[in-house]
Amino acid sequence: MFVLRFIDEEDDLAVKEFTSLSSVKEYISQNNLEKTWHQIEEIKKVVPNLKED
Q: Cβ–Cβ contacts within 10 Å for residue 32, how many?
């Protein structure tokens, strides 16, 4: 999962979640976010260890 943080039209911080990096990049290009502040973060899910001692 990828999280995109960016500044929206009202200068507020907006956050959107995506399933792939290509969909993030497509959203950035469609909404002209290349020249505005944005940050992409990859979220890796942690699977708990269910093994009992």
A: 8
